[in-house]
Amino acid sequence: MRVWLFDFDGTLSPLVADRNAAVIHPACAGMLGELSRSTTDQVAIISSRALEDLLPRIPLKDIIIGGNSGIEWQLPGGCRISLGTNKKDILEARRRELMPLLEKLGRQSGIEIEDKQWSVAIHVEKSGKAATERITKTIDDWAQRQKIALHHGPNVLEVQFLDGFDKSVGATFLASLLKIDTTKDSIFYAGDDENDAVAMRWAIESGGTAIMVGSRLDVPCALYVDDQLALVQTVEKLRSS
After folding, report:
1. Which of 46, 92, 102, 117 could cross-link 66 (Cys pair, CB 3.0–4.6 Å)?
2. What's 59's domain CATH number?
3. How many other C-beta atoms can be found within 10 angstroms of the C-beta atom of residue 100?
4. Between 119 and 221, where is the model more confident?
5. pLDDT tens-digit profile of 184-202?
6. In terms of Cα–Cα distance, which of 4, 67, 2, 1 is closest to 210?
7. Tell me: the pLDDT tens digits for 137-164?
8. Is residue 72 domain-shared with residue 90, that is, in the same domain?
9. Into how many domains does the chain fold?
10. Are residues 41 and 67 in the same domain?
11. Which domain holds residue 11?
12. What is the 3 state secondary structure string of 188-217?
């Protein structure tokens, strides 16, 4: 069995200035449809978007969809599973502590805060290059003082409220749920940012393959492709090899 995990923004969907306008690339939609119909492939999407935000953007059935970096999953047929159920009290305490600081940060010019419940995305694409560099350093310093996990992506920084809840944890949970045997099954992970890079390293350490899309983040042994069309071509080659 081949198990395919795809990030959404920047991987299946081209990056856009307005995140609400993000749509899956037609070639990627066709690829996912083909994978979902195969008896030798299992396909899932894992995104830092909230599950309710992600679901309407995936116009396909029979695909496993994970939101909030894989904390929450919807299986084909609509069944939902969360690996954060026993962490909600800790989450709420952390949110009460950090959200006022994040909301204050969001009042600065050029910054937009996206609350995803389990994490917050800090969008800086409207700031301009010089301001983005300054804001990014400010947020990096703040996250270090607060001792919270922070992942960088193209013009966005992702604050994780709970330590250890990144995409590698979500992917590991899914692999356990699907009873993946890495001695027999092949894992493929495609993404484009730091949160994905953590999961890519997990995939490679599990004997699988990682594909970095449109980014040059350093992930040893990963394959690098420029865009969505190149991703589709690479998946086709990997399936036929």
Report:
1. 46
2. 3.40.50.1000
3. 10
4. 221
5. 999 999 999 999 999 999 9
6. 4
7. 888 888 888 778 888 888 888 888 887 7
8. no
9. 2
10. yes
11. 2-84+165-240
12. EEEECCHHHHHHHHHHHHCCCEEEEECCCC
